[in-house]
Design brief:
- By secondary structure, the chain is mainly α.
- It has 11 helices and no strands.
């Protein structure tokens, strides 16, 4: 098993290589600082994938703005930590990140909540099955196929040999009838 050699440079050599945009600079930057920078980023951003993307953006930002680094204001490491922290905070505040967090995968969450709370849904226990059985036969047939047997609207239309629009209308009307029973 071969081990890859890690590149390390002194801070002065790294700054010089970064300002000259030498390839060795980005390699040394990654080898020397990726763990520390990722640690800072992952404390701010809890999602691993987004944190990894932010680490990449951090390296790009450091690479592209190395000429702005002023050694009289602080060490290179401190400047890079600030770049990583600022990019992480910007990512958290971004509209895309906030919207992505609002949209959760319903399949995984429902299963997780049901398993965690030991909840199982049985429509017979709730009495829903009895309410559906009391509906008009055309409503019952459509709801039985779609909600209890898992058919899609198209499959239900094919099975009942009726137009798709009729299936959707009957479902809507059946739901309205069920609402009346709940109120």
């Amino acid at each position: 098993m071969a081990t890859t050699k890690r590149i390390t440079l002194t801070e002065e050599d790294l700054i010089k290589a970064l300002k000259n945009q030498e390839t060795i600079a980005i390699q040394a930057l990654y080898d020397m600082y990726s763990g520390a920078l990722f640690g800072v980023i992952s404390r701010i951003i809890q999602h691993t994938e987004v944190a990894e993307d932010t680490l990449q953006e951090t390296f790009i930002k450091i690479w592209n703005s190395a000429e702005h680094y002023d050694s009289s204001k602080g060490r290179l490491f401190t400047w890079m930590i600030n770049v990583a922290r600022n990019l992480s905070i910007d990512k958290l505040r971004s509209k895309d990140f906030r919207n992505a967090n609002k949209n959760q995968d319903i399949e995984n969450n429902v299963d997780f909540i049901d398993a965690e709370k030991k909840i199982s849904f049985n429509s017979d226990v709730v009495g829903l099955r009895d309410m559906v059985n009391a509906l008009k036969p055309e409503f019952f047939d459509v709801l039985d196929l779609v909600y209890f047997k898992g058919y899609t609207h198209v499959e239900a239309a094919e099975s009942l040999d009726i137009p798709l629009g009729t299936v959707k209308t009957r479902i809507r009307m059946a739901v309205m009838e069920l609402r009346k029973q709940f109120n």
